[in-house]
Amino acid sequence: MKGPLFAAVLVAALTSQALLAEEYLHPKLRRGQTLIRAVMLLVPDVKVTKSSVSGPERMPQESDRLAAQLLRVIS
Amino acid sequence: MKERGFNVQPTFTEEVLQQSGPLRHALFEIQRRYEDLAAAMDRNPSGVAKGRFSLGDRVAGLSLALAPDAFVFIRATAEMMTPGKQALDGQLLNVILGQRPRSVFSHICLVDSVTGEVLFLSLTVAKGDFLSDAEKVVGEPIVRALQKIPF
């Protein structure tokens, strides 16, 4: 019984996508005192780094690509 | 957000910013102030639910011509580890299985365009190949989070 359970936990840990998802709403928004109808997206600040033995290294092209994808997803 | 009925206005383009020096300066100042606020919110995100965080009414200077209800600040930090780094960190199982651990921390925040109050904050940490499949790895948790904004 322990074997399959361990395997299931291991598979779940290796394949899990969202590890944390938290949302917080201002009391005004929760109570409906403030309504949001129009929003403006500001330029995203995205940093992608490659962590190697020699230390972290910035990846500007990947950062720009992820920023563009985030803008598309959110809008 | 468009699918939910929000009126999503395009972000300031480089051309617009180059034409308007004061707007460029105001935006730079607000983004700079937001960095400090974002760090405080990441340390204590539950303060948003208590209405503790605000950028101040300087944000009103940005919205004179366009008048959105809120500005959306987007921050993300992503990391990918090389096999050598994984081995050094003792993650030999990942090296053997050919897994490349990649994680993305995303921070999406809605700020009232008049008062500067932080109205909504979403923090997500996702794991997966965000470079080839960003819509699934990063997009899905964010879309789920944004659905909690009352409309």
Key phrases:
heterodimer; A: 75 residues; alpha+beta; two-stranded antiparallel sheet; 3 helices; 44% helix; elongated; B: 151 residues; three-stranded antiparallel beta sheet; 6 helices; 4 strands; 24% strand
Structure explained in plain terms:
The complex is a heterodimer of chains A (75) and B (151). By secondary structure, chain A is α+β, with helices and mostly antiparallel strands. Chain A has helices spanning 2-15, 27-30, 60-74; strands at 18-25, 38-41, 45-52, 55-58. Chain A has a domain at 35-75. Chain A is built from three helices and four strands. Chain A has a two-stranded antiparallel ribbon. In chain A, β3 and β4 (55-58) form a beta hairpin. Chain B has one domain (14-146). Chain B has helices at residues 14-19, 21-43, 46-49, 83-88, 92-97, 134-146; strands at residues 7-9, 70-81, 102-112, 118-127. The longest helix of chain B is centred in the first third of the chain and has 23 residues, at 21-43. The model of chain B has no long low-confidence stretch (mean pLDDT 82).
Report strand order across the widest sheet of chain A. Answer: 3-4
Structural class of the secondary elements of chain B? alpha+beta
Largest interface: A-B, 49 and 78 residues
Order of helices and strands of chain B: EHHHEHHEEH
Major sheet of chain B? 3 strands, antiparallel
Low-confidence segments of chain B: none
Quick summary of this structure?
The complex is a heterodimer of chains A (75) and B (151). Chain A is of the alpha+beta class and 75 residues long.
